[in-house]
Structure formats: structure tokens, C-alpha cells
Amino acid sequence: MKTSSRHFLILLAAPIFWAASAGDVDCQGLRGSLEPIDRYEFAPPPSPELKYKHDPQNPKLILNPDFYCTQCIKEKRVSYKSRDELKSILETRVIYPHTIQGKNSRVHGRHRLVEHDADVVLDYLFKKMKSRRPIYIEDKTFRLYIDLDGFSTKKHRYPRRKTELKELSDIFPRVSEKTVKLDSHQRAHLYLNRAHRVYRDFTHIVDFKPNAKYMAYRGPYLGVKEKFEIFVFPKQRLLGEFVNTFLGHPVTLEGECWHTLKDDSMISIMNAENMHDVWLNNTFTHHLAFNFCDAFRGYGYNLPSWFSLGFGHLMERRERTDFNTFFYGEGREPDELWGRSRWKPEIRKMVLKDKVRPLVELAQYTHKNEITPPEHGPAWSLVSYQMQLGTEKFGQFIHILKDKKQGESIYNLQVRAFRTVYKTSITQFFEDWKTWVLKTYPPL
Ligand SMILES: [Zn+2]
């Protein structure tokens, strides 16, 4: 929910992000140290078969596009000229199980951005703002505005490079596993593909079923009514101008996540200033994972802070451990930084010295500011421990967190979740986690 007064974050040497959802979230990203990544079971890779058919006479022309892309139009990779021609693909009618207020269905996916007519917003982004290579892509799930230079895929090694290039070749037949430099258009589609990867992992974890009972009367985008909006600006200045113009948020913001009350969509806004692609990918992953969690089964209330913060870290640190995004509640000015050194030995030391606030206490909070910067470490580690106990159980846990009964407190909701899924109390789970940390995390 929007508040009338805000404190602005001051930009420190490390990039700082502010992420606010309706539940008010702030965040900050910093460079850290590389350490081995915990292994989790995630979604199986997508089918290696390419889904787009290209014209044999003109290989760059895609014959069956299921997305709208401003740059594909410019480069004549598609035959449509306007979004209207794709309306039947981009918009979805959801049928209700019963008539509600005289209606038995609703159309979702209308042409909206930041609670405005999308044409107005796009006109601003493409014509009024000093953007350099603006590209807008919309598909069935996402709306992505992105303005980035090309980059070298070999500058930093990352394990998914080949798979990502293969996926890109579906749009760009000239891209192959040997391609080193991607241009800004290719990079835009790369980020759309990455959004789908995080989405695949999330839906795999929660075993998402669009036709399940819990989705009745909900929006088709994991439960919210409008699509996930993502904005990636090349400079903080442009991001600030945008959030100030359309959301009335401070121009000093570095990034934010936001739930729109009117449209019921999840927005993620970030900037890529001075960031290598691997770091941008980290922050991008964190933002999306966080928003998926909030959107899942509808955005009704704030999740326990330790869990949503921990889950965002988990998804981000699975990519790389040397860049971490810290979300804080709206209005927070971080007075301490944590997370530059290796996380595991630091957390182990906190456990050894009995410096971690018990989970029974952390579990009371839903405002992100009530978790201190050093507590982001244990929050991540607790969620990581949950993942070690099995993805299916972890998914069940999320389902219960998103199914608060009338009158049930957030704390009692977690008591029920731990009891149902792990057959234990919050206190015992915390003790088991500490034992696990001392046994598996390396000393300083
Ligand atoms: Zn395109």
C-alpha cells in the first residue's frame, strides 16, 4: 500500500535497490565473495525442440510468433504490425466456476503498464525519455521493457551459456552455441527467456496447476489478475524518472518491486548501471522469484519476512554467490551492510556464538525492515535447509503460507505449516537447522 511519507535511500558505493511491493519492501545489492552453490532440484530443462517456424525463403521471418516485440517488427522478423493483431494470443478469458456479480468470466492481459494504458507508457518510454535502445516485448505471461547494450557472453563464465544461446536461436537463426557477442535485441529476448526460466522453477517447486481449486476466481498469472511487468533501465537516472512519473516514487530509487492495487499485477523495476550481465541476471532472478511468491494464489497479505527474503536470496544465489540483492521495507535507510564475505562461514559463526534471533521471534514479522541486514544470511540459510529436505515439501510449505485461514495469525499459519509439512515445531526446526549449519558449513 502506498504511504504518504517516505524516506529516500542514499546511494552508497555498493548499488542499492529499493523494492517495494504493496507490503512495502526495500532492497540493496552488493558484491560479495564466490562460494560453492548449494544444489537443489529444480525444473527439468525445457524441451530441446525449437518452437518457432521460420520462412525457408527468408529464415529470419518467424511464421508463428506468440509474442509482441517492437524490435522484431523493426527488423521484419514478424509479419504483424501492431499488438492488436495478436490480441487473441496475448489476452486470456478466464471462465469462473459460478457466476459472480452477474459475470461468468473475465478478460485478463489487457494492454496495461504501471496501472496506465500501456500505449501512453510506451510512448513516454520510447519517445519522451532519453532511452537509447528501447525494446518492449509482451507474451502470454510477461511484459518486458528493456534498454540495454549488447554484451559478450564469454566475459564471465556461467554454466547455462550454451542452453541460453540454443534457446535464443529459436528467434535468431544466426545465433548458435558459438556466438560470443549478443546485440541489444538478442539480449532483450535472453531476459524474456530468463524470466520464463525462473517462472518454470517456481511453478515446478509449487507444482502449479492453473485449473486447481485454489485458482478459482483468481487471475491467470499465478493468481494475480494482470501480467508480470518488468522494466530494466540502463541508468539509475532513467529509472528514477520513470518511477517518479508513473508511480510517484522517489527519483533516487535504484530498483523496486511493487504490487499494483488497482490492476493487481506485480511490477519489477531495476537498473543495470555498472553491472556485468551475470550480476544483472542475479538481481533479475531475485526480483522475479520474490514477485512470483507474492503473486502465487493471489496477493492477499504479506508473507513472513524471513521466508520471502530467504527465498529471493536462494534463487539469486543459485545463479552466482558473488552478487546479492537485499530487499528492505519501504522507508529504510540501511545503517549497516552485511554479505560481502562468504556467507556460510559467517552464518556458522553466528550460530556458534548464539547470535541468531530464534525463528519463533523472526516468524512474527511481515515487514521487511524487522529483519536486520545480517539476518538475511540466516533467512537464506533456513530456506536453503528447507530445500535440502525436499522440493515437494518445500512446495507444500509455500502452499500453506499462501492459504491463511480467516482469523489465523501469520505466526499460527507458520506453526501449522511446520507441523503439517515437517511434523515439527518452529523451535525444533530452528534447532535442527543450527545442527545442519554446524555440520555442513565451513568455519571461517
Ligand atoms: Zn524481438
- Strand proportion: 15-25%
What does the largest sheet look like?
A: 6 strands, mixed
Which structural category fits the helices and strands?
Answer: alpha+beta
**Quaternary status:** single chain
Please give the share of residues in helix. 25-40%
Unreliable stretches = 1-24
The domain count comes to 1
CATH class placement: Alpha Beta
Number of strands: 16
Name given to the CATH homologous superfamily: Collagenase ColT, N-terminal domain
Mean pLDDT: 90
Bound small molecules, deduplicated: zinc ion
Which architecture name does CATH use?
A: 3-Layer(aba) Sandwich
Describe the structure.
This protein is of the alpha+beta class. α4 packs across α5, α5 packs across α7 and α12 runs antiparallel to α13. It has a single domain, classed as Collagenase ColT, N-terminal domain (Glutaredoxin, 3-Layer(aba) Sandwich), CATH 3.40.30. A 6-stranded mixed sheet has the order 4-9-10-13-15-14. The two termini are 42 Å apart. The N terminus is likely disordered. It contains 14 helices and 16 strands. The structure holds zinc ion. Zinc ion (ZN) binds next to α1 and α5.
List the SSEs and their pairings.
Layout: E1 26-31, E2 54-55, E3 58-62, E4 68-69, H1 70-74, H2 87-90, E5 92-100, E6 103-108, E7 112-113, E8 116-117, H3 118-128, E9 135-138, E10 142-146, E11 151-152, H4 161-168, E12 181-182, H5 184-205, E13 228-233, H6 236-246, E14 255-259, E15 266-271, H7 277-295, H8 305-317, E16 323-328, H9 343-352, H10 359-362, H11 376-388, H12 391-401, H13 410-422, H14 426-440
Parallel strand pairs: 10-13, 13-15
Antiparallel strand pairs: 1-16, 2-3, 4-9, 5-6, 7-8, 9-10, 11-12, 14-15
Helix pairs in contact: 4-5, 5-7, 7-8, 8-11, 12-13
The structure holds zinc ion (ZN).
